[in-house]
Amino acid sequence: MDTTRFLLVTGGSRGIGAAVARQAAAAGWHVAVNYTRDGEAAEAVAAEVRAAGRRAITLQADVADEAQVEAMFARLDAEGVLGGLVNNAGVVDVAQRLDEMSLARLQRMFGINVIGSMLCARAAVRRLSTRHGGAGGPIVNVSSVASRLGAPGQYLDYAASKGAIDVFTIGLARELATEGVRVNAVRPGIIDTDIHASGGQPERAQQMTPMIPMQRAGTADEVASAVVWLLSDGASYTTGALLDVTGGR
Fold first, then answer.
1. Nearest CA to 140 among 43, 20, 32?
2. Candidates 3.50.50.60, 3.20.20.140, 3.40.50.300, 3.40.50.720; correct CATH number of 5-245?
């Protein structure tokens, strides 16, 4: 049996997820890059991981689909051993008030951002927890500072989904505290990635600069650095933490 320990990064083909994959490889992790649609982008990230001297695999799955999540973890099992999880996959939508939002939008938002993270964490716990015979390992959830700001008039549903991730992080951390699994979250602020374009506001990072105490947007690499620290032995006594990476916002 191959005992290569992989870090699984969901939504790893772009933005923060891709930056996490690259930095994790530099820190010594072998990486499994999950993607939903863009296999070419995922393979490009995997190539960068391999160039850093680590193993990399790409795994297609929609995290909101239970059967696809289970199949993804089974494919990873065939390649090696799960060593850690970064729940990064997430979506935003166009700016709207709640009274303009459709049920389909709400179901998509919570299906991917919340249920998807919980399904992936569930599969990871079954492999990592000492209760299940695992060797332990870290889980890092990617939340958002929107969880405490509320995002009124823009992304109230997104903010609410990330509020759920915060509570999930704290609860799961305490649930697993004696089982070798640390669970933490990073809460990015305004980060210059293409997620803003997917929400119909490609210039949002620049437009929001005056509201940020540091007067600039953050980068995916700055968020990834926080994630990789939480994955590391340097964070061995840190669990249930919500780490803001917001430029002071």
1. 20
2. 3.40.50.720
